[in-house]
Amino acid sequence: MLNRRNCLALLGGAGAALVKGPASAQAWPSRPVRIVVPFPAGGSADVSARLIGEAFREALGQGTVVENKLGAGGNLAATDAARSPGDGYTLFIGTNGTQTINGSLYRRPGFDAVTDFTPIGLVWEAPNVLVVSKDLPVRTVAELVAYAKAQPDRLSFGSSGIGSPTHLAAELFKARTGASMTHVPYRGQAPAITDLLSGQLQVMFPLVPDVLSHLQSGAVRALAVAAPARSAIVPDIPAMAEAGAPGVIASAWIGLFAPAGLPGPIERRLAQELGNTLAQPRFIQRLRDIGVVVQPLFGEAFVAKMAAERSHWAKLIADLGVKID
Fold first, then answer.
1. E strands in the chain
2. In Å, what is the CA distance from 267 to each residue of 91, 252, 272, 305?
């Protein structure tokens, strides 16, 4: 577990640097801080933003306002945040979609994920999970691949839209295993999950938190998590490598970002307070309750993770020939 001492070590002595910071930075914040979220209220990203906002209110002595701004796969929210001043009064809940996928997927996303943002830290990461309709006569990844190859026109997989993480995870699975499945894109994940539950869809790659209740009730059958190891949230479900599909690794994550140009002392203060928040037992448990595990990552390690993912998904998107106007 990340504690205050470890957090400060990760940040390279940020606490000492804050004391020596310029007066203007030390005066920050002097008014409420806005946190822009690219998802609707009630989801895991929104819950995370509100818990971070509560912790920041106590630590910084100023109010926080969570603003949900939806549309274009997160691009509208990201563009809004990117065009805001880099003064510490606008923060952004960035995702693997906005920060590593959309730059390759959209012709005009409206922002540059590398140059328009200052990364503060990773908050959590959740793997995609391969689930099938409970009526489909397969119980393992190997059985699904064999079934898909034997009946190439039989299986349909749903996603929350073309180029969405749920779509790309399934395409990665197809590329690694040779399974033949037809893509059915939906406008959002909820209607796709509804059709999976009814049997109109046979396969899907949602995130663990998005189907956790259905996994627990037995409404859908999970075959594997798209992760290097089993998930602490659903430890009974094998990882893809165990299930015979190594290399099928796909997850979603959220992190805290600020617009580019953020003064160093404010950046370090935000990273310090985010680290403190991620170490709070209440925060950790609240996120476990909704199906995600806190996974702090700061500095160059976070930057390197994003760079590797951009390269990985850019190649898959190019191979698929997918572009969104």
1. 33-37, 64-68, 90-95, 117-127, 129-133, 156-159, 182-185, 203-204, 220-225, 251-259, 293-297
2. 11, 24, 9, 19
Q: What angle do CA 41, 43, 49 make, to 5 degrees?
A: 70
Q: What are 265-305's pLDDT values in tens digits?
A: 999 999 999 999 999 999 999 999 999 999 999 999 999 99
Q: What is the pTM of this model?
A: 0.87
Q: What is the CA radius of gyration of the chain?
A: 20
Q: Which two tokens stand for residue 267?
A: 């950046």
Q: pLDDT for 210-227, tens place per residue?
A: 999 999 999 999 999 999
The first and second tokens of residue 239, run together, are 């990882």
For 56-65, b where at least 16 C-beta lie within 10 A, e where not — what string?
A: beeebeeebe
- Give kind and range of the element (H or E) at residue 146: helix 141-150
